[in-house]
Design a protein that fits this description.
The complex is a heterodimer.
Chain A lengths: L1 E9 H5 L3 H14 L1 H5 L3 E6 L5 E6 L2 E6 L7 E10 L3 H8 L3 H4 L7 E6 L7
Antiparallel strand pairs in A: 1-5, 1-6, 2-5, 3-4
Chain B lengths: L4 H27 L2 H22 L5 H23 L4 H11 L6 H15 L6 H12 L4 H7 L4 H17 L12 H20 L6 H21 L3 H15 L24 H15 L6 H14 L8 H14 L3 H15 L1 H13 L7 H13 L3 H14 L3 H15 L1
Helix pairs in contact in B: 1-2, 1-3, 1-5, 2-3, 3-4, 5-6, 6-8, 6-9, 7-8, 9-10, 9-11, 10-11, 11-12, 11-13, 12-13, 13-14, 14-15, 15-16, 16-17, 17-18, 18-19
Classes of the chains: A alpha+beta, B mainly alpha.
């Protein structure tokens, strides 16, 4: 069973501190995440570039637009897809991710969803 | 001599009361779905009412009910599979495994624990945990739960439906947690049990009768947990609830006025509950690292053994509060310790401790801090300061009997 862990952060809080502080925290992430990678349960673990593009159907025609823009303070910063037997196992794995273990001052958190799919991969 | 059909029907009703929750717990494990298991349980008992009067009681009614419920569920899955290919494999899987025994004795005992841990899973909101536990583990109807919590039955039903959907969709496991997570997860279960108990014990609202029922359910849950999971804190909570429940009759006047512990008629305390509480607290205290529930039970146990307030061993109580403060450091425990110290060393010693808590900025909006402070001023013969503190407590209280109690105290001061 696959679970997605959505990593959120508080953009206002992170923008308020000097860049080198944020960079130091990001360097630490690399060390913290090692246990999660060693578990062998990670299918995907990526960060999101903030620039977003939206594609949808408007009046029956496909439309591509810029945005949405990061206006709300709560932002999606990364996604991790893991393989786990149930929610308890997924929580244990997600708890190894920096977004769950670090960045308390920047509102970092992981949100876990079980995944279903139209197609079996 | 053979049983009459009436006897058999009475036997089915009795078995429903004692076994239906166990059968449900096992069916949820076997079927992996709360709703399917509940329907299967009803079907199994319907079949029992139909067959047992002619065929006689089976040798093992619980095993019969589990097997019958499971086959009824397989029928349902097969019927659904005709319309929905996605459940076809579920039906096949059930038929394949149904031939096996439904699990050993140990696994069957664990099913009830699985049910409790799943209903009290931290991924569910507290109110959902409570409603689900009362419905699935205790077997209360949504009407009964709504009545006890002064909520419409429809609201309770919706809470339960949502909780079951979350269990299914978020993949909350139907498992007793492993050794590593067990302590934290036991805490969550005990918290639910104690919340149910306190809802039944607080005289804040609702009719006395339904409230007492809730405390009774919490104690039943406590006994079940102590039987299935003999952890010291489980025993401690059970003992604490038994001691508190033993005073129920003595803690209010017939008109519903609150009577403080010191002024209760102790001949009205329930000795049987106290004796049972005493046994559990002794077992709970016999471990090296005593927990917060066991310590609270130990304190309640000292009160239960004292002939009156003056003859209470306040030294022991203060000592237990000392330990409790280490296990669970918080200002309310500190306040209670201060009251015990006042009883042991005199009101001036207690007042010093309470003043320190309030001066630090803690418990400023906690009425009992002010009423305890007022009481100590009163005993020190400082009525003006007592009056100010009682008035602060009165301004903070929201419960009618407590408001009347504080008003009586204020009248006594001016008399």
């Amino acid at each position: 069973m696959k679970f997605i862990c959505l990593g959120y952060y508080n953009k206002v809080a992170m923008d308020a501190v000097p860049k080198d502080q944020v960079e130091a925290l990001m360097r630490e992430c690399g060390l913290v995440i090692a246990d999660l990678y060693r578990s062998g349960a990670v299918a995907v673990d990526v960060g999101l570039e903030p620039a977003a593009t939206t594609v949808r159907t408007v009046n029956g025609r496909l439309q591509v637009t810029d945005g949405p823009f990061a206006e709300t303070k709560e932002q999606l910063g990364g996604i991790t897809i893991i393989e786990a037997a149930n929610l308890d196992e997924a929580v244990k794995l997600a708890a190894l991710h920096p977004a769950a273990r670090m960045g308390e001052q920047f509102g970092w958190r992981e949100e876990i969803h079980a995944l279903h799919s139209f197609k079996q991969f | 001599m053979s049983e009459t059909p009436q006897d058999t029907r009475a036997a089915v009703a009795a078995i429903y009361r004692t076994e239906s929750r166990r059968v449900l717990a096992t069916l949820i494990r076997l079927l992996g779905d709360f709703n399917l298991a509940e329907d299967a349980l009803q079907e199994a008992f319907a079949a029992a009412i139909e067959h047992w009067p002619c065929d006689g009681l089976p040798a093992n009614p619980r095993a019969w009910l589990v097997a019958t419920g499971r086959f009824k569920a397989i029928d349902v899955l097969r019927r659904r599979a005709r319309f929905d290919a996605s459940v076809a494999h579920l039906a096949t899987q059930q038929v394949e495994t149904a031939a096996e025994a439904p699990g050993g004795v140990e696994e069957l005992a664990d099913d009830r624990l699985r049910l409790i841990f799943t209903c009290c899973h931290p991924a569910l909101a507290a109110e959902a945990q409570i409603a689900l536990t009362l419905r699935e583990v205790c077997g209360l109807t949504t009407e009964e739960i709504g009545h006890a919590y002064l909520a419409p039955a429809a609201t309770v039903a919706q809470r339960i439906v949502r909780a079951k959907a979350k269990i299914r969709d978020a993949r909350i496991p139907y498992e007793v947690p492993g050794r590593e997570e067990l302590p934290g997860r036991i805490d969550a279960v005990l918290c639910v049990v104690y919340l149910v108990f306190n809802e039944g014990y607080s005289a804040s609202s609702g009719t006395a009768l339904t409230r007492a029922d809730l405390s009774g359910e919490a104690i039943r849950l406590g006994r079940l947990l102590a039987e299935l999971l003999p952890d010291p804190e489980v025993m401690g909570l059970l003992a604490l609830m038994l001691f508190q429940e033993s005073r129920r009759e003595a803690r209010t006047t017939p008109a519903g006025e609150l009577i403080l512990l010191a002024e209760q008629d102790r001949s009205r305390w329930d000795r049987a509950l106290i004796a049972e509480g005493r046994e559990w607290v002794q077992r709970a205290l016999a471990v090296p690292a005593v927990g917060a529930y066991a310590l609270q039970a130990a304190i309640a146990g000292v009160h239960a053994g004292a002939p009156d307030a003056a003859a209470t061993d306040w030294g022991r109580i203060a000592g237990f509060y000392e330990l409790l403060l280490r296990a669970d450091p918080n200002p309310v425990v500190e306040l209670n310790r201060a009251v015990a110290v006042a009883m042991r060393d005199g009101p001036a010693a207690g007042l010093k401790l309470i003043d320190a808590i309030l001066a630090r900025g803690d418990l400023g909006d906690y009425q009992f801090a002010h009423s305890a402070q007022a009481d100590l001023y009163r005993r020190l013969g400082r009525p003006a300061e007592a009056r100010v503190a009682y008035e602060r407590a009165l301004a903070l209280t929201r419960q009618e009997p407590e408001r009347r109690f504080l008003e009586r105290r204020l009248t006594e001061l001016s008399g």
